[in-house]
Amino acid sequence: MHYNLELFGKKLKTIRKKLNLNKKDIAEMAFVADKTIRRYESGKVKPNFDILETLSPYYKTDLVALLIQCRFDDYSVFYAIKNRIEIKLGNQDNTFNKELRDLNILLSSTKNKYCIDLINQLIIFIEAIELYNNSRIDLAQDNFIKAIKITTPNFNLNNYDSYIFSSIEVRILMNIALIFNKLNDNIKYLEILEFCINSIEYTDEIRPTLCNNLAVAYIRNKNYQKSLLYSNIGIQACIENQNSNCLSNLYYTKGCAEYRLNMKEHIESLNTTIYLCRAFKQDNLRNFIIERCKKYLDIDLLPN
Asked: Residue 247 burial (CB < 10 Å; 0-12/13-18/19+)?
């Protein structure tokens, strides 16, 4: 079931203000982190039902029922398209014509403003990725920023760390970090990625991808222990949340870190990558990994 989180957050904030309470008051009374209250009221995070039940007495409202009132039906199609995009990105597949077409079809039939904003955001995100892949870095960054501004209008890259972001916005911000990497600004690259990983819930579906990007970043900085740490965190997140989108990439990055640390386990990790690519039909990614293992590690991995 999917919800208009922005609408729910506004209702939550209105109720709290009518009770003459601030976010810190609620957090202290309910023994809930104040950042959780901020995230819920900003409409950036899907609330946990158990926490809503804990908060309900202090808001003097059945918050679970309030959230259900904010559900909508057309989000499931959007989510399916978004998931296809993530799968393609993980498989080094940069052909998004079908996804763009499906998003535009959905846009023409959607009346919910919240969903319309999310569709437009994802369209601009895809266009930015295509610009990035064609080495049009400045335009790509402009489009990534434009995409975030659809749902966070005052967003400014100079003080990005002062905002609360949704999962999709964190995904876009992660891609902005990759642009800084392209520009050889490793400090900003790592800084943004670390901010992103600390801005999401443990169960967020983007967590494994973020872990992989951090693991790759630390390999480039020759901090192989930290790379291995994030690889393992990402793999664990995939397993616990039953999210396989980034699992092959994570085992590859793990194998690279183990190789640099002279750990014999690197062969098992790299072979696991190939097995996973075959199981998930990630042919592009499999060929990419085989080529890079030969080029940078002098390791021949069997395609099958």
From this structure: buried
- Let me know if 151 is exposed, middle or buried by CB neighbors in 10 A (0-12, 13-18, 19+): buried
| C-beta separation of 123 from 104 below 8 A | yes
| d(C-alpha 118, C-alpha 227), whole Å | 32
Q: Mind listing the pLDDT tens digit for each residue in 57-103? A: 999 999 998 898 887 666 778 888 999 999 999 888 889 999 999 99
Cα Rg of the chain (Å, integer) = 21
Q: Could you tell me which residues come within 8 angstroms of residue 10 by beta carbon, excluding any fewer than 6 positions away?
A: 41, 43
Question: Does pLDDT of 1 surpass 70?
Answer: no
Sign of CA dihedral 56, 67, 43, 12: negative
Structure tokens at 72: 């909508």
Q: What pLDDT is attached to residue 4?
A: 83
